[in-house]
User: What shape does this take?
Amino acid sequence: MFQSVLRGVRIVEQGTFITGPCAGMMLADLGADVIKLESPEGDPYRSYQKGLYSPHFQAYNRNKRGLVCDLKLPADREVFEQLIANADVYIQNFRPGTAERLGAGAKRLRGINPKLVYCSISGFGADGPYAERPSYDSVAQALSGFLSVVVDPARPRFMGPALADAITGIYAAYGILGALYERSHSGQGRLVEVSMLEAMAHFAVEPFAAYFALGAVPTSSDRPRLAQAYILRTADERLIAIHLSSLEKFWQGLIAALGAPELGRDPRFNERLARIQHYEALGEALDALFRRRPFAEWAARLDDNDVPFAPINGIDAVVNDPQTRHLGLIVPVESANEGGRQAVRPALQFDGRRATAVSAAPQLNEHGAAIRAALARDPAWPASSTDSVARKVAG
Assistant: This one.
C-alpha cells in the first residue's frame, strides 16, 4: 500500500495566521504528523470573521491535531518539552524575541533535542532595522518590490489572496525538507530561518534579474507585454485570457482563429518585437474583435488553432471544470463537524497516486485530552488514533 512520503515525521507547529500554519499544512499534506499548539484563546485566524472556526483558519490547518498549551504554566511547559524531545521539526512565526521569552527559543529547544529542525518565520528577519516592526501580507508584498511588478500604478489595488503569507509558508516548508534531508546524513538538526521579505524578493527573482542585467527598473506592464498576454472581453461579457509567449506559431494561430489576416499584415504587429512595442494598440484591436462573438465560439476557434487560452473562471467554475474533475482536485473533508465539506487536495502526485481526502482542521483543543493522556502514560510522541486521511490516495 502507498505510504505518505513524510509518514513518521513528527512536527510541533506553534503558528498563527498564515505563514507558520501554511508551512505546517504543506508538510501535513505529505503525511507528517503535525500537532498544532495554540494559546487558550486560540490562533487569532480562527475568529477572522466570526466564531472560532473561520474558513480562513480551516484552509491552512487541515490534516493536523490540535492542542491548547499555555507555556506560562509549568504543567503545560512540561507537556511542550515532552513533545519537543521527540519531535523532528518545530515551527513558529512569532515576532523576533517572543519565542525566547516563552522559553521556546532555538537554543533552548535544540538543547532539549539536538536533532530538532527548528524553523523560525518572521516578517523582516531576526535582526536589522526593521526586525521589531509588525509585518503582514500586504506590507511584505510592498517592501519586497513584488507589488511594483503586479499592480497598475494608475489604479493601485492589492491582490487577493494573501500571496506573501502563503508563499513564505511554502518557502519555510522547502527549507525544512532540506534540513531533514541533511539530518538523515549528519544526525544533527538545523535552525531554518525565513522572512516574508526574503521569500517575496526571491519569488520575484525574474524582475530582479532583469534589473541587474538591463539596469532598468521593471514595471507591472513588462511581463504581460513581453509574454504577449491579454485579457479580453467577449460579446456575452465573459473574460478570456490569451498568452502568445515568444513562439510565432501562437500568433499565426490567433490570426487564423480571428479570421483577420489584415491584422497579421499590419506592420505594427507582423513580428514579435513590433507587437511588444505596440502592445496597447494590439490589445485594443483584439478587444474590438473579441467583442464580436460569444465566449463559446472563441473557445472553439482558439482551441482548434492551438492558441493558449482560458476563461477567467470564478471559484465556482473551477470546482465544476472538466479538467478539475478529471484530476480529482476537489476532495471531501473527512471528520468535519462544521465548516466546509470539500477542499482542494494537495497538488502533488507520487507514482500517479494522489490524496483523495483531507482531514478537517482541528477545533480548539480538539485532541488535547488524548495527547495529554498519551504523554502521561508514556513520554514518547503521542500516536494518532487514526492515520491521516491525507494518506489516502487514488491508485
User: Anything to note?
Assistant: Residues 149 and 219 are 5 Å apart (CA to CA). The mean pLDDT is 95. Residues 163-186 form the longest helix (24 residues). The radius of gyration is 25 Å.
